[in-house]
Design a protein that fits this description.
This protein has 80 residues and is an all-alpha fold. It has one domain. The chain has 4 helices and no strands. Helix 1 packs across helix 3. 16% of the residues are buried.
Length: 80
């Protein structure tokens, strides 16, 4: 299966707006779990900017629980 590549950053907001709620929710989950120190260092500020845009789009759509879960750093086990 080929690796998925995010669209160019300048089209990111448009990409997020085009997603349905289910796909946006899945993307938010992915960004939550990818936010470990190694990944954050590798991707730098672009990763964090994209994640903040995902959170903002969730908030705009009223998906407040999804936005909150994307903000919270992923933890081992139950996540609490």
């Amino acid at each position: 299966m080929p690796e998925e590549i995010a669209p160019p950053f300048e089209n990111w907001d448009q990409h997020l707006k085009a997603l349905d709620d289910r796909d946006l929710t899945e993307l938010a989950k992915d960004y939550r779990w990818l936010d470990d120190e190694a990944r954050a260092e590798e991707e730098g500020s672009e990763f964090h900017s994209r994640r903040e845009a995902v959170i903002a789009e969730c908030e705009r759509r009223g998906l407040h629980d999804v936005a909150r879960s994307c903000r919270r750093p992923a933890m081992g086990g139950s996540g609490r």
